[in-house]
Amino acid sequence: MSARSSGLNISYRAEGTGTPLVLLHGWSRWADTWWDAGYGETLADDYRVIAIDRLGHGQSDKPHDPLLYAEDAIASHIVAVLTAERVDCALVWGFSMGAVDAASLAVLHPRHVAAVVCGGDTPIPSRHGDGRREQHLAMAESVGDVEGFAGLLDRLGMPQEAIAESLAHNDSAALAAAMIGGADRFPAIASVQAPSLWYEGSDDHPFTPEDLQLAARFDVETCLIPGADHAAAFRRADDVLRIVRPFLNAHRSRAPLTSA
After folding, report:
1. Of 3.40.50.880, 3.40.50.1820, 3.20.20.60, 3.90.550.10, which CATH number belongs to 2-130+187-254?
2. pLDDT (0 to 100) of residue 168
3. Distance, CA of 244 to CA of 241 (rounded, Å)
């Protein structure tokens, strides 16, 4: 399936019936990876699962202009898919880069978001001097060739077979553009009105005391996946679903039912 947004093709996969649940993958991944890891089929038993190929990924268009990957543009693509699916409001779950996209959607288009799950990253804007923007840009530069791309995925804990799959599926120039376009982390947690859950792998970059203070201030639930690095915090679907599913179930009444 696909939707048009700002003249671009945005591909997505939709299965199941009931409460709409949008799934947003991480950098270098695509919609089908939610099924490959064991989430999609399980969730489709209870939800209308709508997994989107972010611009530059999967079957969506892959432009090389970083300006096309700004968070407001990415959020508008998600809205275009919701419109195509005739969904007014959905539960939204993103992992890694997708977590920032989920929070951006909640900030820019709050009426479309019933609740937000952010895995593998915290939707906190970069602070001046914290080095995150510079690190992001350095990473983008390093993935411009196959060796650098594979090296980054290896450092993130991705298995070799998954790295080979990513190399076969992706356009490294588009992925670098996506990373550059997202270097200025947009979401402002204070502007997210929907109920929120954040989770991280304990061996990835677990919550700082400042993160936890901010989460408590805005009533955000936080959880750690024990013994998980960044990649395992996605691959270990059973462990993640034990945390996320109760949250989704608790807030599903906030999103109207839809049917395939």
Report:
1. 3.40.50.1820
2. 82
3. 5
Is the pLDDT at 132 greater than 70? The verdict is no
The pLDDT confidence band at residue 125, using thresholds 50, 70 and 90, is: low
Q: Can you tell me the distance from the alpha carbon of 183 to that of 83, in angstroms, rounded to the nearest whole number?
A: 28
pTM: 0.91
Write down the domain spans for the chain.
Answer: 2-130+187-254
State the average pLDDT over residues 159-178.
85
3-class secondary structure, 20: strand
Lookup result for tokens 């992706």: 170
What are phi and psi for residue 226, nearest 5 degrees? -60, 135
- pLDDT, one tens digit per residue, over 211-234 is 899 899 889 999 999 999 999 999
> How many angstroms separate the CA atoms of 39 and 31, rounded?
11
Instruction: Identify the bridge partners of residue 24 per DSSP, sorted by sequence position.
Output: 52, 94
Exposure on the CB side of residue 213, measured as CA atoms within 13 A: 3
> Within 13 A of 179's CA, how many CA atoms are on the CB side?
25
Residue type, 44: A
Q: Which segments of 59-197 does DSSP mark as H helices, in order?
A: 71-84, 97-108, 132-142, 146-155, 160-169, 172-181
Q: In this predicted structure, what is the pLDDT of residue 128?
A: 47
Alpha-carbon span 46 to 15, nearest angstrom = 10
List the one residue out of 176, 159, 163, 186 whose CA is nearest residue 70: 186
